[in-house]
Structures are given as C-alpha cells and as structure tokens.
Specification:
The complex is a heterodimer of chains A (302) and B (317). Chain A is built from 13 helices and no strands. With 302 residues, chain A is mainly alpha-helical. Chain B contains 13 helices and no strands. Classes of the chains: A mainly alpha (302), B mainly alpha (317).
C-alpha cells in the first residue's frame, strides 16, 4: 500500500514536470536571460536604497549648507554637493523615490485606461469602436512632449499626483490598440462562442476568456513604459515644468546643473546617471519579458 | 492603388478636423487668455475688456470662435504672435529652415550609419561586432536625450574645448562653413545617437527574418556571390519596413527636437514652441500644433502607401 502511494506521487510529479504551466515556463526563460536578471537586481537595489534613504544618509536632502557649496565628490560627499551645499547622493536617493514612483504609477494609470478603452472598442465594436479609435488616432497626431509642456504650463509645474495622472492619461494609446487587437481576433473564436453558449455573461467572457490572452504584450509594453515615463518626467522636470523644488526628482536636479556645468560637472553627471541606470535596467527587464512571454519572438542559438 | 490613396486621403479629413478641434480646445483651456497682458494694468477698465473681447470676437459662442479660427487658418491667415506681434507664418518661416538644417543632417547621418551597421549585425549575428553594437544601442536607447546633450557639452565643449557650447554659429562672425559645421556636431550627435538605435535594431531584426527565408538559399544555390545575395536579395526586402519607419520620422524634420534645441540654444521650431508655451502665445502655439499634427497624419498616410507600393504582397482592399 505504502509503495503504491509513493509510485503514484512520483508519477504525478513526473506528469507535473512535463505539463509545466505557461507562466512557469516563461519564468524559466526569463531567468535564463542574463541581462534581465541583472536588471531586476540593479533595480531592486536602487529601489531599496531609495526607500531606505533616511537610514543610509546622515544628511537632510533639502537643507542648504552654505559652508559646503559645490564640493567635489569626496568620502564625506560621495557624489559631491550642489549649488546650495546639499549632499547630491542624498538628494538622488530621495529623488529616486519620486522618479520611480511616478514611473510605476503613471504606467498603472496608462494600462488601466488603455485596457478599458481597448476592451470597449474591441469587444463591443461598431460606432463606439470607430469613435474611440478615431480619438486614439487624433491623440497620436500630437507630439507627446508638446502636450506635456502645455500641461506643465497649465499647472505651473506639477505635483507628483498631477504628473502621474498627466503622464498616465497621455500614455495609454498603445495599450488600447494592443488590447483591441486581441479582442478583434478572438471574439469570434469557438471558445468564446462556447462560453457564451453555456451562458457566460459579457463581463466573464471579457475578463476570464479574452483579456488573459493580451496579458503578455501588456506586461511587456507596461514594463518598457515605466522607463519611458521616467524619462518623460525627468525631461519635463529638467525643463522646469515638472516636479518643483525643493522636492528633488532626478530630472529637476539637472535643471540648475546647466549653469554650473563648468565648475561643478558632477551636478550634471550623477542624477542623469541614475536615470540612465534605472531606465537601462527596466529596458533589460522588458527585453527579458518579451523573450520569456513570446517564444516566437526569439530564436536563441545555444 | 490610386483609389486606395484617394480613400485614405478622404478618411484623413475628419481626422484632421478632429485634431483641429482638439488643438483649439487645448489652447482655449490654457490659463491667462489673450487679454492677460492687460489684466494688471490699472487703467484697463471693464468697459475696455468688453470692447476688446468684442473686437477680437472673444464674446462669441465657442463653436463660432472655432469656425472663425478654422476659416482664417485655412486661408493661411494664422494671426499675430502676442509676444513679438509678428505674423505667425513669418515666425514659423524663420525657424523652419534652422530645424530642417539640423534635423536633415541628423536624418542623413542616422541612415548612413544605421543601414550598414544594421546589415552587418544581422549577417554576423552573435559575433563580437554584433554584441558590441547591440550593447551600445541598448545604452543609448536608455539615455535621456537631455543628459546626453549635457555630457557632450561638458566633455567636448567645457573640458576639451574642441567644440562650441551652443548656437548655430559664432555670434558676430561672418558666414563660415567650418564654423557652421562645428556648431552642428554636438546637437546632431545628441539626437542621432539616441535615434540610431531603434533603426539599427529594426533593420537587424528585419534582415535576420529575411536571411532565414527559402529564396535566400535558392539565391545562394544559383551560385550568386554572397555580397549580391545580401545586398540585392535580402536588403531590398528587409528595408521595406524600415521605409515606413523613416516615413513616420518625417514630421520630426519639421517639428524639430525641442529638448536638444533648448540645450544647445538652437533657434528652431522646438524652441519656438517652448517660448510660445511659456509665454502663453496662443496664435503661435495653434500654428505649430496644427502644422505638426497635420504632418504626422500625412506621414502616416505616406508610410502606408509606400509600404504597399514597395511590397506587392500587400493588397489594398
């Protein structure tokens, strides 16, 4: 008796080994993508350091120190100090909280709106579809930076909440097209007919049967979108229309750097380097996810 | 084909109208308003305000204001800048050549580098060359344009003092080709290094797909030289999607690169937009928005048509 049960479990395990879930297989492919794993590592370290900024750094990020203006990088100030004597490393950590949060939440807004619009257009079709898609076409026809600048002028610089909303509401277009395409291609398929045949309601068909099929492209687009949002925020703040001082963001720390580039080039270097580091990690992760979630996408030579 | 183009053009009309409504609405939503300049003036009475609003048609219902604006816009009467009181068309006409000069150079440089590099990385997939290029591309695609611009200024302008920090030419100096070119290098490098990446990646992926196809084996089996197989059989087909990407880049030639123009003090369209936005100069903003979005719509149309024309496998129905 005991032996049989052991064999049965072993057989079951064997079977599980063969029929691994889609997500497990994707995870294994992702783990094999070395740059992506490195990206996860760097980004996690960065996020933890920013979250623990007050524990790591002995300095106040916003307090001006008139006796230590423009100090070059040293042991006391690893990235130097800025035009008001504030420790750059500290401000970068605190600014990282702002920049990373904005990137993440703006994409959350964008994905929510994009999915909603894509579902409405793709599933219900007809007049609603043409109306929504023409709206998307029109939105695509404005350079995004122009719109961001107009919003920045409108709000006279933005708070974290406003910039998240504005970035999110300007970045959902691609997601809506992706979701709509999935719905258009799947809503006539047999499995949807079958679900409808056994009496499933629209909501169940949309969220249980069709939407999961566009999850992979949404995840990839969303990940890369975080990097794009961080760059957009930093560009806007660099131009002086985004996050306003004294709150630091990686972008607005570079705003004053332009005037001091000659005597204090480190002020221009370090905040930008962290934008670069974060965006590069995110792009690596996005690349890894693309390979992992869409096996057709790569033919890898081993 | 001809009918397809006509139909697409007709479809573009409602889209352009929708864009014009959006542009009008965006500008109308901006704070201040065209009479903001007078608000602080103590001699500016309520009666003056009413009189001016009437004179400018600002007391009419919004839809009527929109139609008036659209009408004069189509007649190329784009109004006068609030800031400089010059005609909007003239302002745009002054800046456009500067932007075309900058972005045109970028365009040529990007293609001259991206096409050979894209082909080589595909032909020599997974070679050290491919790895280096792919890594470099990834680096620049993750670099914020404005930071790259600042770094180039610091290194080549301030530290090494090889190149000028900004502007189109040395102020006060007479026209000199060498001087002009020296001013061009850093802004072009800033835009091109970031832009090049997507083109190389695109061409590389497209080439790899083409190289794997059966007719390539056939071409080799016929005994054709590898050069001809790659250049004539593979590149010609692989470049088709690249053409659409290039077509979609065209609006940038006119709209310019705002951030780069700002950093390098380049008097182009991007800076014109920036100055107009920060000064609430509505007529100029409306003009630039209308031009840029119409260009984007036309570029999309052009890209679709080109794609079908270059690739006979695509049928217009």
């Amino acid at each position: 008796m005991a032996t049989t049960s052991v064999t049965v479990t072993a057989a079951a395990q064997d079977l599980r080994g063969v029929a691994r879930s889609q997500w497990l297989m994707a995870f294994e492919r992702f783990r094999a993508h070395r740059p992506a794993v490195l990206g996860v590592l760097v980004l996690s370290l960065l996020a933890i350091a920013c979250a623990a900024a007050s524990l790591i750094s002995p300095y106040d990020p916003d307090k001006t120190q008139l006796l230590s203006l423009y100090e070059a990088p040293s042991l006391r100030h690893p990235f130097g100090t800025d035009d008001l004597g504030r420790d750059l490393a500290t401000r970068i950590l605190y600014g990282g909280r702002v920049s990373l949060t904005i990137g993440l939440l703006a994409v959350t807004v964008a994905i929510t709106v994009g999915t909603l619009v894509g579902v409405l257009a793709g599933y219900y079709g007809g007049f609603l579809d043409s109306l929504l898609m023409r709206f998307v076409d029109a939105m695509y026809s404005f350079p995004r930076l122009f719109l961001l600048i107009l919003f920045g002028v409108f709000f006279k610089g933005m708070t974290v909440g406003v910039i998240i909303l504005v970035l999110g509401l300007l970045s959902w277009l691609t997601t809506s097209r992706l979701v709509r395409a999935t719905f258009l291609s799947l809503k006539q398929r047999e499995f949807v007919e079958a679900a409808r045949g056994v009496g499933a309601r629209d909501r169940r068909i949309i969220f249980r049967h069709i939407l999961p099929n566009s999850l992979a492209p949404i995840i990839v687009a969303g990940t890369l979108g975080v990097g794009a949002a961080i760059i957009a925020e930093s560009t806007l703040s660099f131009l002086g229309l985004g996050i306003q001082p004294p709150t630091s963001s990686w972008g607005n720390m570079l705003n004053h750097a332009t005037t001091d580039m000659d005597k204090a080039p480190w002020i221009a270097f370090f905040p930008g380097f962290f934008i670069f580091l974060a965006v590069m990690s995110i792009n690596f992760i996005g690349d890894g996810l693309r390979d992992a979630l869409d096996p057709r996408h790569v033919v890898r030579k081993t | 084909m001809g009918r397809y183009v006509v139909r697409r053009l007709l479809q573009a009309v409602p889209l352009l109208l929708a864009i014009s409504v959006a542009a009008f609405a965006i500008i109308k939503a901006q704070p201040g308003g065209p009479l903001a300049a007078y608000e602080g003036n103590p001699d500016f009475t309520e009666a003056d305000r009413v009189r001016l609003e009437h004179a400018f048609g600002l007391d009419q219902p919004l839809p009527l204001q929109y139609l008036n604006w659209l009408g004069s816009f189509l007649r190329l009467d784009w109004g006068y800048s609030f800031a400089s009181h010059q005609p909007v068309l003239m302002l745009i006409g002054e800046r456009l050549p500067n932007t075309l000069y900058l972005m045109g150079t970028v365009f040529v440089v990007v293609l001259l580098v991206a096409i050979p590099v894209g082909v080589l990385t595909a032909v020599k997939q997974y070679s050290w060359f491919d790895h280096i290029v792919t890594g470099t591309i990834f680096t620049f695609l993750s670099t914020p344009t404005f930071w790259l611009g600042l770094l180039l200024i610091i290194v080549f302008g301030l530290q090494l003092r090889w190149l000028p920090l900004g502007g189109m030419q040395t102020l006060g100096a007479s026209f000199d080709v060498g001087d002009r070119l020296r001013h061009l290098i850093l802004p072009v490098a800033t835009i091109a290094l970031v832009q090049m990446g997507s083109h190389v990646r695109f061409l590389r992926a497209s080439m790899l797909e083409t190289i794997g196809q059966d007719y390539m084996r056939t071409a080799r089996a016929k005994g054709l030289a590898e050069r001809i197989v790659i250049m004539r059989h593979a590149l010609k087909n692989a470049a088709i999607p690249l053409v659409t990407i290039i077509a979609l880049d065209m609006p940038e030639l006119f709209v310019g690169a705002l951030v780069t123009e700002q950093i390098f003090g380049w008097p182009g369209m991007g800076r014109l937009f920036w100055d107009a936005a920060t000064r609430s100069d509505y007529p100029v903003l409306q003009g630039i928005l209308a031009v840029s979005s119409s260009l984007i719509v036309l570029a999309n149309l052009f890209a679709d048509v080109m794609y079908g024309w270059l690739d006979p496998r695509i049928r217009f129905s």
